[in-house]
Structure formats: C-alpha cells, structure tokens
C-alpha cells in the first residue's frame, strides 16, 4: 500500500503517509487500510481531472467522510469508502445506503448553478467531478464529524482498537521479516 501511495501521489505521498499514521484514531483505520483507500481515491481523483495540489486534501476528506458515514449509518468505514468510490465511478446505488441520492439530472443542474454547463471534453469531465463532489458534500453535511462524536461509544472504541491491533501486527511482521527471510 505504501508503494501505491508513492506512485499515485508522487512528491506529496509523505502527507498521505502522515495521515495514515494517525488514521487509527482519526478514522478507525489501520495505516495499511488508510493507504490502500488513499491510493484508490487518489488514482480516481487524478483520472477525473482533480488538480495535483488538491489530491491529498480531497483524498483525506473523502476517507474521513467514509468514517463519518459509517459512524452515523452503521457498518464499516471500508464499506462506506467503497460506496464513495463507487459514486466517483458513476455507480450511485451503493451510496444510497448512507442517505445520498445523486442522479445525473442533479449533476447537470449543479453544473449549471456553478456556471460549469456548456463545457466539452476534459473540462466537462472535471465539471462533472466538481458537481458530484459538491452534491455529495451537501447531502452528507449532517454526518460530518460523526466519527469523532461517536468516538467514546463502544463501536468507536472498538474501531480504534481494531486499527491499533492491525498496526501492531504489521509492525511485528516488519520486525520479524529479516529473521524469516534469513531462515
């Protein structure tokens, strides 16, 4: 996952690695899980025309949104992030589980409201992305901060504990790898 982050984010990869180290507390995700999700989101956003300087913050915001949606509506952060990723691919059914309903007509109307209609080619593709993300943020506003609000519940504590345990297993594996390789 670290290599994928390096490939997708290039010189900005250090920021993603930094976010990944605190992901257990911030989103209930292990470092590896965060980096896997970040690599997918980063690649998707890059392919959708998101500016390089916006990739890191946008990726972190979407993973955080996944943690918030999971905390508010139940289920795992991984499932919620998967639904967000599906939305970016144009598959809108999975995100409906989290109270989000975005149709193509909504995207077209949002583009017009943002002054991004009548574009073609790559510019229209970027406008679709901007409109989709704007609608997503509008429709998930009530979930913002849900993971933090739920952090003291049993589910919140369990998510952080599971992520910390995964990080510990990974650290132990890295420490033992030279010994196993030598044997």
The total count of strands amounts to 0
Percent helix, as a range, is over 70%
Strand and helix order: HHHHHHHHHH
Shape: globular
Main β sheet profile: none
How far apart are the first and last residues' alpha carbons, in Å? 26 Å
What would you say this structure looks like, in words?
The protein is mainly alpha-helical and 183 residues long. 74% of the residues lie in helices and 0% in strands. The protein has helices at 2-9, 13-21, 23-27, 31-47, 52-73, 77-88, 104-113, 121-139, 146-149, 154-182. It is globular. 33% of the residues are buried.
Please give a quick description of this structure.
The chain is 74% helix and 0% strand.
SSE layout and pairings?
Blueprint (H helix, E strand, L loop, with lengths): L1 H8 L3 H9 L1 H5 L3 H17 L4 H22 L3 H12 L15 H10 L7 H19 L6 H4 L4 H29 L1
Features:
183 residues, mainly alpha
């Amino acid at each position: 996952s670290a290599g994928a982050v390096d490939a997708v984010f290039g010189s900005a990869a250090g920021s993603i690695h930094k976010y990944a180290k605190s992901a257990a507390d911030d989103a209930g995700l292990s470092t590896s899980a965060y980096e896997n999700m970040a690599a997918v989101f980063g690649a998707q956003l890059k392919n959708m025309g998101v500016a390089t300087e916006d990739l890191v913050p946008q990726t972190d915001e979407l993973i955080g949104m996944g943690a918030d949606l999971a905390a508010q509506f139940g289920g795992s952060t991984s499932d919620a992030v998967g639904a967000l990723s599906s939305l970016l691919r144009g598959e809108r059914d999975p995100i409906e589980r989290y109270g989000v309903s975005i149709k193509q007509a909504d995207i077209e109307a949002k583009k017009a409201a943002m002054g991004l209609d009548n574009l073609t080619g790559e510019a229209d593709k970027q406008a679709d992305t901007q409109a989709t993300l704007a609608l997503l943020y509008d429709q998930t506003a009530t979930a913002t901060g849900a993971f933090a609000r739920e952090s003291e519940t049993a589910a919140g504590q369990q998510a952080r504990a599971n992520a910390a345990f995964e990080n510990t297993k990974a650290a132990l594996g890295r420490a033992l790898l030279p010994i196993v390789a030598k044997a």
